[in-house]
Inverse folding.
């Protein structure tokens, strides 16, 4: 999902990572260089080598964080995030292992930081994977550690708590996004046919302001008789099927919507008069085929159509174009009535 809530959460995580790692890069580099109070924590050449390697790893992770913050919705975000977790975990584990072996400084609580970071990025699964990796690595590389059982217990609790909370937050965000998408769809689509409503059609036309646009206003001939004879449920089925046929007839050539009642609107980007006329004929052919309205009954309806065209460079809005097409539609309807 690439919804706003998820993207904001990812940007927040990357911002926090950039700030915290930048502090870690500076403090670790100063300690490895023998500058400041942190220098006492790096008494051996091995520790200095690990610290410099950590600086490189954290710098690379910050580059990935910077890219992830700029493109939180990219296809490679998850892979880059997993690589950051790997680099952060290796850096923390290396520093903790060597400091535990070469100094009396208590640094093993830093392993919890790697677990928390993994939980934020990859929920419970990420937290448990990093917990297992750090616990196994520490146990193998620091044999005989007196507080190993306590370390394992604390790490497990932190992994479970932070992992479940992060997973719960992600589920909550997904539920909110699904609700938002449903509300947005309801606001921009007709509830009966599922077609775009007037607001959606207007936005579509406005996005193409100044570009050629063909507009077909369609009115069903015989719909009232279907409603009066067979009931509103049958009329609703008819309208839904008309929406399905309109969408199929258009394909990728335009956008069909319902204005209300038995009126439909078709928008044809970059269309001229010939294209609009061909589409009107195609729509009539599709809709006039028998329609199943349930209980073994079928009906047929016709279509009156009006056409309006917006040439390139014109700024006419959808209301003006619809009014023009409406006049044409009534002329077409009167002509068919006279012919009948």
């Amino acid at each position: 999902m690439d919804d706003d809530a998820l993207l904001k959460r990812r940007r927040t995580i990357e911002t926090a990572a950039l700030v915290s790692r930048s502090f870690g890069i500076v403090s670790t580099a100063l300690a490895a260089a023998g500058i400041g109070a942190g220098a006492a924590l790096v008494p051996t050449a091995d520790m200095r080598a690990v610290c410099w390697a950590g600086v490189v790893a954290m710098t690379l992770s910050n580059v990935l964080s910077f890219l992830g913050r700029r493109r939180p919705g990219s296809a490679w975000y998850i892979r880059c995030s997993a690589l950051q977790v790997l680099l952060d975990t290796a850096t923390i584990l290396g520093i903790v292992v060597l400091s535990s072996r070469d100094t009396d400084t208590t640094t093993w609580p830093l392993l919890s930081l790697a677990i928390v970071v993994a939980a934020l990025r990859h929920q419970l699964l990420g937290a448990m994977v990093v917990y297992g990796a750090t616990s196994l690595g520490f146990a193998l590389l620091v044999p005989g550690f007196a507080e190993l059982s306590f370390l394992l217990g604390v790490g497990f609790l932190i992994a479970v708590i932070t992992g479940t909370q992060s997973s719960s937050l992600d589920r909550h965000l997904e539920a909110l996004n699904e609700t938002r998408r449903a509300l947005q769809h309801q606001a921009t689509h007709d509830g009966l046919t599922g077609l775009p409503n007037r607001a959606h059609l207007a936005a579509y036309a406005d996005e193409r302001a100044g570009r050629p646009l063909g507009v077909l206003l369609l009115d069903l001939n015989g719909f009232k008789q279907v409603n009066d004879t067979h009931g509103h449920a049958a009329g609703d089925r008819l309208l839904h099927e008309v929406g399905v046929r309109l969408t199929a007839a258009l394909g990728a050539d335009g956008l069909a919507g319902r204005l209300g009642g038995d009126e439909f609107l078709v928008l044809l980007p970059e269309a001229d008069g010939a294209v609009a006329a061909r589409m009107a004929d195609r729509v009539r052919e599709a809709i006039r085929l028998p329609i199943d309205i349930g209980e073994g009954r079928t009906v047929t309806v016709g279509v009156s159509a009006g056409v309006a065209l917006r040439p390139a460079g014109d700024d006419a809005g959808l209301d003006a174009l619809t009014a023009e097409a409406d006049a044409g539609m009534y002329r077409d309807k009167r002509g068919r009535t006279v012919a009948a």
Notes: The chain has a mean pLDDT of 90. The beta strands are 213-221, 255-260, 263-269, 291-294, 297-299, 302-310.
